[in-house]
Write a sequence for this structure.
């Protein structure tokens, strides 16, 4: 298989890339890791006339924390960079848990987090992680930069809010006000498959172990990433307890909209959402106790 | 390089697409190629350079048989454009052995019976090479993790894992201490 014909440009700067997109209009695509775009082009689900390869644009392969703790992930930061990151384990437990579960090790060498968010696959793992953390995408176009919360960035399956001449230059995870805990669990039939069920949980706790912020998001159990906001709300304002964990798990399971398919029955998937929420929060609770 | 593409009648949009001249090295040899942007890296290696050790299995980013190293990183060559290796270094399975000696990975697969049909083997070896460059003393778990993007339908993986561990031990014994 091979893609239909296209013009290829490999600009050396962001400005050059943006002006190429501006001139290329609706028929241009940005190529970063290419682990979704190239397969789509080979299957002719995508047939752009112009491909703007940003791999030669310097300074986009970072992930770093600002002094206040805000995490920034550049457009060329690969999944493998996040998997082997020294920065994430201490400060970003949900992201650190998710990175080794994206696709497979070879794909992780090329694919990027920002590209995954742009691809907007309703089955994508990173979208749930970023939604649970209240993250956003920074887009740059001819008029400058704007920040778009992920919930507004993803318009629908495989559809994002970028203008044709905008590039998603980084993803931003806001700084935690308290201590961050959480995780990502994914049930998959084999490495590299889409999630049968994926659950991202991110919480922040203040002094006295009171949960001050919580985010729960679900992958693979609906036509889009599901933000289980009621489930998250059930955790806030008190320390974690068996009661609050059970309540959040029940509400998350209720928020899921699973369908029976070759990966499992709707009932099974709903059950796994409940199990995963409970498992992540129970681990977080145990870790907090050990730390205290 | 000349590639023959099927005329599907959906090529009108792009108009005349210029060929691109790229320079790269493959297994240490410098090359220049004229390629159409849509040419895949796997096709450049197999049909352009003529190195058919890199196998095309699924052609859908699943199986890992086409795995090669680009600047030392394992990539699925069916999922990268040939134009993207301009200025980069490619390593394929043909680069492992010297004229007279097998690479320890190849020896390991021989000693531990790490293959049956052999179709996935080149990809397995290139993934393993990237692992051993990063981690010369991997655990069994590390090896299984590193090879989890490469599918084998014959062996059940047991002997492949043993082969990589065998090669790791041999490479460590050869390393200057």
């Amino acid at each position: 298989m091979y893609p239909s014909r296209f013009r290829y440009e490999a600009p050396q700067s962001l400005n050059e890339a943006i002006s190429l997109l501006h001139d290329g209009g609706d028929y241009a695509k940005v190529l970063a890791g290419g682990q979704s775009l190239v397969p789509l082009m080979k299957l002719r689900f995508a047939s752009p006339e112009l491909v703007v390869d940003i791999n030669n644009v310097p300074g986009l392969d970072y992930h770093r924390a600002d002094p206040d703790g805000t995490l920034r992930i550049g457009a060329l930061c690969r999944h493998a960079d996040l998997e082997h990151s020294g920065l994430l384990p201490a400060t970003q437990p949900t992201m650190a848990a998710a990175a080794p579960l994206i696709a497979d090790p070879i794909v992780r060498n090329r694919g990027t987090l920002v590209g995954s968010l742009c691809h907007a696959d309703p089955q994508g793992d990173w979208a749930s992680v970023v939604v649970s953390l209240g993250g956003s995408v920074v887009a740059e176009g001819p008029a400058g930069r704007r920040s778009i919360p992920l919930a507004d960035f993803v318009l629908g399956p495989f559809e994002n809010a970028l203008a044709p001449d905008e590039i998603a230059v980084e993803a931003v995870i806001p700084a935690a006000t308290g201590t961050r805990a959480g995780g990502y669990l994914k049930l998959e039939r084999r490495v590299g498959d889409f999630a049968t069920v994926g659950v991202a949980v991110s919480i922040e706790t203040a002094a006295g172990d009171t949960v001050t912020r919580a985010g729960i998001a679900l992958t693979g159990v609906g036509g889009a990433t599901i933000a289980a906001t009621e489930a998250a709300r059930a955790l806030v304002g008190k320390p974690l307890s068996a009661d609050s964990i059970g309540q959040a798990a029940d509400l998350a399971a209720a928020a899921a909209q699973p369908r029976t398919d070759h990966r499992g029955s709707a009932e099974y998937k709903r059950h796994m959402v409940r199990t995963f929420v409970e498992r992540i929060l129970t681990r977080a609770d145990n870790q907090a106790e050990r730390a205290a | 390089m000349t590639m023959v593409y099927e005329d599907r009648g959906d090529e009108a949009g792009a108009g005349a697409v210029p060929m691109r001249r790229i320079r790269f090295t493959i297994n240490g040899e410098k090359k220049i190629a004229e390629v159409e942007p849509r040419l895949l890296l796997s096709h450049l290696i197999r049909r352009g350079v003529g190195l058919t050790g890199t196998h095309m299995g699924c052609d859908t980013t699943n199986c890992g048989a086409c795995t090669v190293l680009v600047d030392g990183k394992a990539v699925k060559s069916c999922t990268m454009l040939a134009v993207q290796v301009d200025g980069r270094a490619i390593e394929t399975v043909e680069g492992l052995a010297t004229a007279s000696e097998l690479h320890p990975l190849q020896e390991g697969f021989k000693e531990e019976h790490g293959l049956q049909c052999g179709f996935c083997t080149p990809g397995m070896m290139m993934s393993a090479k990237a692992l051993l460059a990063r981690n010369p003393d991997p655990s069994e778990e590390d090896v299984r993790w590193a090879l989890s993007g490469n599918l084998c339908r014959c062996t059940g993986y047991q002997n492949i894992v043993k082969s990589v561990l065998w090669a790791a031990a041999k490479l460590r014994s050869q390393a200057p201490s």
In short: Residues 40 and 130 of chain B are 21 Å apart (CA to CA).
